[in-house]
Amino acid sequence: MNEDLAITRPSAIAGSHRKQMWRRLARNRWLYLMLLPGIVYFILFKYVPMYGVLLAFKNYQPFLGFLKSEWVGMEHFSRFFGDPLFWMLLKNTFILATYNILFFFPLPIIVALLLNELRKEVYKRFIQTLIYIPHFMSWVVIVSIAYLFFTTEGGLVNEGIAAMGGEKIQFLLDPGWFRTFITAEVIWKETGWGTIIFLAALAGVDTQLYEAARMDGANRFRQLWHITLPAIRSTIIILLILRLGNFLDTGFEQIWLMLNSLNREVGEVFDTYVYSTGISQGQYSYSTAVGLFKSIVGLILVFAANQLAKRFGEEGIL
Amino acid sequence: MKAKKNGQAWRKLTASAGTAALIMGLLAGCSGNGGSNDGGNADPEASANGGASPAGQQTEAPKQEPYKMSIMLTSYNPEFMDPEGEIYKRLEERTNTDLTLTWVPSTTYSDKLSATVASGELPSAILVLDQKLPYIVNSVRSGMFWEIGPYLKDYPNLGRMSDIALNAISIDGKVYGLYRERDLARDGLMLRKDWLDNLGLKEPATIDEYYEVLKAFVQNDPDQNGKADTTGLAEQQVAAGWRAMLAWHGGPADWELKDGKASPAHLSPAYMDTMKFYKKLYDEKLINLDFAVVKDGKQLINGATAGSWIANLNDAQGIEESVKKVVPTGAITMVNALEGPADLRSPGGSGSYGLFMIPKTSVKTEEELKAVLNFFDKVSDEDMQNMLINGLEGRQFTLENGQYVKTTDSKMLVEYGMGDSTQLAVLRDKITTYGGPLVHMRNEMWQKNAEIAVSNPFQPFISDTYSERGSELNKIIEDARIKFIMGLIDEAGWNDAVAKWRKDGGDKIIEEYTQAYKAVNP
Amino acid sequence: MVRDRTFGSRLFDVLNITFLGLFALITIVPFIYIMAGSFATQKELLEKGFILFPTEFSLEAYNFIFSTSTLMRSMGVTIFITVAGTLINIVLTCLMAYPLARKDLDFRKPIQLMVIFTMLFSGGMIPTFIVVKELGMIDSYWSLLLPGAISAFNLIIIRSFFQQLPEGLEESAKIDGASDPGILMRIVIPLSMPAIATFSLFYAVGHWNTFFSAVLYINDAAKWPIQVLLRQIVILSQGGSLGDTTAFESDFVPPEQSVKMAVIVISTMPILVVYPFLQKHFAKGVLLGSVKG
Question: Where does the record place the region Disordered (chain B) (predicted)?
Fold first, then answer.
């Protein structure tokens, strides 16, 4: 706000401008002091180790250390892009990530809104507590439960289908079911957990606004549209932008556990590939190169999304 | 009003800042600095004397300063060895060391290993589970580890190490570590004894007999419950029985020497025969049809629904215990190998599991090296071997009528880390085996297998292409094999997969192995 | 309160509660299976595979886990890390988020850029390990508390929550002579309790699950948090040591299947118990009203 004032003042010459800035800095000294521990933290624990990114251009040997390992330029990248699997990996990762954003991302918002509409606080708390439990189960457990339900040998669902005279379905082997399962499992595990952040945002809505709207005869849907949604809009946008930063991170463990010989052609993604060729073989430089590629894609997406948000008059993350 | 409140807020803020400082202080108080080792700082004179003398004396002069050493190794149990415990004490006394053990949970071992290696703060000995990982090979080649091969003969126990196993762990023809001994060929067939008895059958000796047994297990109601609810062979995603079945069909253990060249198992005709055998089992529903998604096939035989399991015969004891909980009369029997088209054979391994390597960065002088080797030599004394594997009689176990009874006292269990102490054992040739008939049967089977074991002649060699692309290439073959067994591809489809394997790097691996082999065996 | 009592509205209520109830049911069934399994006998688990209520009640799994003598100690370690760590997290995150929420701050943009950049790029495990080592934090609890002291993700979102507070409040406080720390403590934090509660939960869950960094930075196994112990028990119950033919080669029998499930129950329970206490902070609009009034 003060900034605006300073800019619009026509008499501002360079000297007084700088003086004003000093005055602002002095006035905000507390704010800078508050920032200090955080900045030290980010420099120490995030930026000092950042040289590790350069491993992507070296042939890192742990025994030789960072400095003595030889530079290899773009070798790891050309190996990665030249891998016969590259395009398959890109396609699989892209599709799974898109499924995730299309089908999973909106759900916590919807469930949070529905929870918000519950009239009885008891119901709301009870359901909230139940749906956030799966977040704490490891993927190993979830995948083994999926097996118990969907295998063809005594799986509950297939037994049901067979009992009704249907033909058993190879849910876990058929490549056609793979993406559905991955997305459904994520929805099952994380929707409840994801609602928490939106519920926190909803808690900040001024109840007086609803009362005023009701006086004006607005029905519940209109209240939702004109009061509730705008209140959490910026949270949604920020989360979406941040999510795009990790767009190519599909998660490793779940997919690794769901992969098998029959669905690998649709299931193998960057994260599983880098695990089996890079990490488990101790090829740090190669793993780092793949990671760097993913980060750069994320960076581009984040900035593009941020610009887009700004164009629509949103705050964005920057 | 507000101004007054402001003052209060200030007091509050300073108060909470004070609390924060207090907490920080407490935290500082809690943080220790123990645990880190300084293996390189030991008194050189002491370690010089601590080194074993070639004459192989057992007793040390009492006044010698203990050699300060540390070892990093895997842990599989929730409790680590108690450093104040009796076993730890005896270990230090016998080896004349001041010992620090760094236990690392087995699942995170490789991360911890690489971070430790990178940080340069290495213990006196590290356990390496896969010495063919590129970064280990490269560090060996750049001289980071002691070559210990020439020293072994100077030690009474280490001198007994087997040439086969040493060859298997060697890198470029030299030995850089002390291997942890395992039996050479441990895979075999485990079957439900009570099912065989119910059906009036005996243990199969050939592949054909085994096929008949499987058929009877599925079709003739072996558990006599009047329902067709049994499976013949339990299998899983990462085939447990494949290597054994392949060897029984006359195939090699992973690689073989053919016409002077390296040749992978999947190029042998036996591989196709084995696939066809599995396909027959699949088509006739003699194995669990969902094997391609099953993570742990052993659960099927544990739960008494499957009749056989091919894997490490060590599983037998646990399976019998599990089966007995469901069917009290259940019992397990074993067959070490099935006869097929070729002679009786068994797939051989390396004869070891992991090796202790000694870094030059922490063990700087030859004297110190000798002190470390002395540790592993002393640990291989008969009583020490038994202490590490079985525990101490009267503490970790008692013998009742010759039967081994494990203690339930948790303090005693912690003394040997609930069994983690076995991780330290190198040689295992003087161990008293306790346990029931199945355990003794297993040992018998392993001995029989050792005599008929086929081994991989390319085990000690390194192929750069395999290191880089091996896991991706293996997937091509494994996926095609499973698809073939399930009838999703035919022989032509299989051949396509093999061609893809060759093209994507397989041919290069063959070439690299062949060259490495010829360099050593001209 | 004026209530909307039209037919459409009531129909919506019915549908809404049915849908949410069903969803809750679907998400909870597997947990019930885990709970039931942890109390079931090996026989029942092996025979039936999937159960929702054990016919025969067994405490063997819990006995097995609680017979571990170090359980209580590592539980203590975890509780300490969780409480101290969350406190550090929240204090540092709020301290940094508030200035960044102030639009009149110079250098705000570059600082935010610096934060966001760390979400996309990281030096990786080994360089971070070396920093922790150079700071002398190996084998100290600091290594579990400081390297993750601020989550960039949480920071950005808390900042945006702070930004959404009505600006008038701050302005009037300022006119009354309140300093910036005063505003943060007396106005911003109390008004943002739902967000603070949420992010305390996020941070606490993270600390509760501390596993990898503990194994990496702590050599002294006596200082390991409970997750290390629990995971080792799970490995043991999968017969993990069998593959390596180690412990008791002669008579090793892996513990019951139910142990795996009991481990999940034990590691989930404390967090589940804490949640309802945090929930009261989500109550709609309560705080805003009270401060204004």
Answer: 33-66
- Is CATH 1.10.3720.10 what the domain over A85-311 is classified as, yes or no? yes
Task: Examine the domain organization and report whether C21 and C135 are in the same domain.
Answer: no
CB-based contact B337:B449 (threshold 8 Å): yes
Are C69 and C169 members of one domain? yes
Distance CA A249, CA C153 (A): 15
Are the Cβ atoms of A281 and B478 closer than 8 angstroms? no
Do residues B296 and B147 both lie within one domain? no
Chain C interface, best mutation among B1, B2, B223, by max C CB count within 10 A: B2
- Domain residues for B397? 39-184+352-424
C218 with C87, same domain?
A: yes
Same domain, B97 and B109: yes
Choose the closest CB to B314 out of C47, C228, C245. C245
This complex has an ipTM of 0.87
Are both C17 and C78 inside the same structural domain?
Answer: no
Calculate how close chain A gets to C146, using CA atoms only, in Å.
8
For chain A, the structural domain boundaries read: 85-311
Whether B43 maps to a domain, the answer reads yes
Say whether both C115 and C29 belong to one domain. no
Range of the domain at C19: 1-58
> Do residues C154 and C245 both lie within one domain?
yes
Task: Name the residue among C137, C265, C284, B249 with its Cα closest to residue A113.
Answer: C284
The torsion angles phi and psi of B477, rounded to 5 degrees, stand at: -70, -45
Of B53, B87, B54, B149, whose CA–CA distance to B355 is shortest?
B149
Chain C contact for B423 (CB, 8 A cutoff): yes
Per-residue burial over B239-270, b = 16 or more CB atoms within 10 Å of its CB, e = otherwise: bbbbbbbbbbbbbbbbbbbeeeebbbbbbbeb
Residue B8 lies in a domain: no
Co-location of C82 and C202 in the same domain: yes
Cβ contacts of A235 on chain C, cutoff 8 Å = 157, 160-161
Cβ distance B326 to C233 less than 8 Å, yes or no, reads: no
Say whether both B198 and B334 belong to one domain.
yes
Structure tokens at B333: 């029997």
Tell me whether residues B139 and A63 touch, CB distance under 8 A: yes
B241: domain CATH number?
3.40.190.10
Q: Do A53 and C123 touch (CB under 8 A)?
A: yes
Q: Are residues B246 and B222 in the same domain?
A: yes
**CB atoms < 10 A from the CB of B2, how many?**
14
**Among candidates A61, A60, A57, which has minimal Cα distance to A73?**
A57
Counting the structural domains of chain B, the total is: 3
pLDDT 10s per residue in chain A (318 long)? 444 444 444 445 566 778 887 888 888 888 999 999 999 999 999 999 999 899 899 888 877 778 888 899 999 999 999 988 899 999 999 999 999 999 999 999 999 999 988 888 888 888 988 998 899 888 888 898 898 889 888 888 998 999 998 888 999 999 999 999 999 999 999 999 999 999 888 887 777 888 888 888 888 888 888 888 888 888 899 999 999 998 999 888 899 999 999 999 999 999 999 888 877 777 888 889 999 999 999 999 999 999 999 888 887 777
Residues B148, B72 share a domain: yes
Q: Nearest to residue C134, comparing CAs of B29, B118, B125? A: B118
Asked whether the beta carbons of residue A202 and residue C284 sit closer than 8 angstroms, the reply is: yes
User: Are the beta carbons of B292 and A61 separated by less than 8 Å?
Assistant: no
- A114 inside 8 A of chain C by CB: yes
If asked whether residues B310 and B448 sit together in one domain, one would say: yes
Token code pair at residue C13:
């209520």
The answer to whether residues B360 and B139 touch, using CB atoms and an 8 Å cutoff, is no
Classify residue B267: in a domain, yes or no.
Answer: yes
The minimal CB distance from A38 to the residues C96, C102, C165 is found for C96
Cβ-Cβ contacts under 8 Å for B512 (sequence gap 6 or more):
B461, B462, B463, B464, B465, B466
